[in-house]
Structure formats: structure tokens, C-alpha cells
Design a protein that fits this description.
Layout: H1 3-29, H2 36-124, E1 127-131, E2 134-138, H3 140-154, H4 158-171, H5 178-191, H6 195-208, H7 215-228, H8 232-245, H9 250-262
Antiparallel strand pairs: 1-2
Helix pairs in contact: 1-2, 3-4, 4-5, 5-6, 6-7, 7-8, 7-9, 8-9
Length: about 260
């Protein structure tokens, strides 16, 4: 019940009380002036006024009750709407949080995929490397195949190493690994007593890269091949050139020893 309804009821009650009190006073004051008929008429009038007042009071009470019920229903409906709005807001917050988590996960996956792709691409990209003091750019496949051939050589499987090195040189004719591959191919051929082919491999290295760090060793190996092939004159000349051209090398010292024995 609102404040207006309460005020109306209070006013009606006060009016009724005042009316009854006046009626009582009037009845006492005029008892001697009116006859019974007039007294009954006055009482009937008073009763009628009281009934009207009671009816008004009842109507006001009913209206106040209806207003109160309507207000209560409105408040309940408003509360329900508020609860529904809060629930919807909570649902939206939950959806937004989930979307944020999904977005973060998607971004993480995209980053991981990008890094993985970069790593895979780098495997196929040329890279700089240094072998036997020489720096050059090579494909990853070149290094892989060269390492494979070297692994076979180090195992002592010289016959297979020859095949693998020859295949490597044929597939990569311009590779930066070529001087080193020729050197180890010559050594594999020498180990299997294939002196002519070994001689050709070592000479190919000297002609290709005369400043290569393996050239003094290759020159000494050429002399060894010549000695095995009974070309003592050629071996002596090779050893003398080795001492003259690379005097500070370990191979030059070994060449001096060989020359002393040849004399």
C-alpha cells in the first residue's frame, strides 16, 4: 500500500469518528426538544451517513488493497526482469571470456604453426658453413649427403665410401664440399689400392683449389700413388714441388724424408 492510500484511509476514519461523536452530542443536547419521530429520523440519517462513510472506507480500502497488490505484482515482475537481465549479462560475459580464450588459443596455434613452418623452410634454405677452412653456402641436402659419405668412410667401409663420394660429386658438381670430397674419395681409393683413380682424384683437388688446406696432403698422396705405380721419377718430382711450394707444412717434412730414401 502506497503513502497516498494510507493517508486517504486515515482521513476517512477520522471523518467517521468525528461524525459519530457529533451525533452522540446532538442526541444528548436535543433529547428534550424533538419528539420520537424526529429522533428516529435523525438516527436514520446518521445511520445512512455512517453507512456511506463505511462504504467509502471499504471502497478506499479495496482500492488501496488492489493498488498494493498491483504494486507488488509490478515489483515482482521488475525483479524477474532484473534477474533475467543479470542472467543474460552473466551468460554474455561467459561467452566473451570463452571467445577470448578461444582467440588466445588460436593465436598460439598460429604462432606455433608459423614457427614450425619457418623451421621446416630453413631446412631447405641454403646456409653458410665452413669445411677444411673454406666458407661457402650450401643446401641442407648437400651437407646431409656429405656427412653420410664421411660417416661411411670413418667406419672403414672404403669401397662403399668410394661409391657414395662419386655419387655425391656427380649430383652436386658445383658444391663447396667438392675439394674435401675429392680428398676423401682419393683416400678411399688409395685404401682399396685403386691407385690410378686415387691419383686422378688428388690431382683434381690440386687443380680445382690449389690454395686448399688439404693440397699439401694431396700432393704427398700423389707421390705415394706414383710410388705404388712404380713411377719413382714422377714421385720424386712431386715431392720436390711439395717441399718448394709448401715448405712449412707437415706434408713437406714427410716429403723430405721420402726424398732422402729415394736417393
Amino acid at each position: 500500500m502506497n503513502a497516498v492510500s494510507r493517508s486517504s484511509i486515515v482521513q476517512v476514519v477520522r471523518v467517521a469518528a468525528v461524525t459519530v461523536a457529533l451525533a452522540a452530542c446532538m442526541g444528548n443536547a436535543t433529547a428534550g426538544l424533538f419528539d420520537d419521530e424526529e429522533a428516529r429520523k435523525a438516527i436514520l440519517d446518521l445511520r445512512q451517513k455512517v453507512q456511506v462513510t463505511e462504504q467509502k472506507l471499504a471502497e478506499e480500502t479495496r482500492r488501496a488493497s488492489e493498488d498494493s497488490a498491483q504494486l507488488q505484482r509490478s515489483l515482482i515482475e521488475l525483479q524477474n526482469q532484473l534477474d533475467a537481465t543479470r542472467a543474460e549479462a552473466a551468460k554474455l560475459r561467459g561467452q566473451n571470456e570463452q571467445m577470448a580464450r578461444d582467440l588466445a588459443e588460436l593465436q598460439r596455434q598460429q604462432k606455433d604453426a608459423s614457427q614450425s613452418l619457418d623451421e621446416r623452410l630453413r631446412k631447405f634454405e641454403p646456409s653458410r658453413m665452413t669445411i677444411d677452412g673454406r666458407e661457402f653456402v650450401a643446401e641442407s641436402s648437400e651437407k646431409r649427403d656429405y656427412d653420410t659419405a664421411m660417416a661411411i668412410f670413418r667406419k672403414g667401409d672404403f669401397a662403399t665410401a668410394q661409391v657414395v663420394f662419386v655419387d655425391f660429386l656427380n649430383r652436386y658438381p658445383k658444391t663447396g664440399f667438392r675439394p674435401s670430397a675429392l680428398f676423401w674419395l682419393g683416400n678411399a681409393q688409395y685404401a682399396t689400392k685403386d691407385y690410378k683413380d686415387a691419383l686422378a682424384s688428388f690431382r683434381a683437388l690440386v687443380a680445382l683449389a690449389p690454395d686448399h688446406m688439404r693440397v699439401p696432403e694431396a700432393a704427398l698422396a700423389i707421390a705415394n700413388c706414383q710410388l705404388e705405380l712404380k713411377d719413382n721419377k714422377g714421385a720424386r718430382k712431386t715431392l720436390e714441388e711439395l717441399v718448394a711450394n709448401y715448405p712449412a707444412s707437415e706434408a713437406a717434412q714427410a716429403a723430405k724424408d721420402r726424398l732422402a730414401r729415394l736417393r
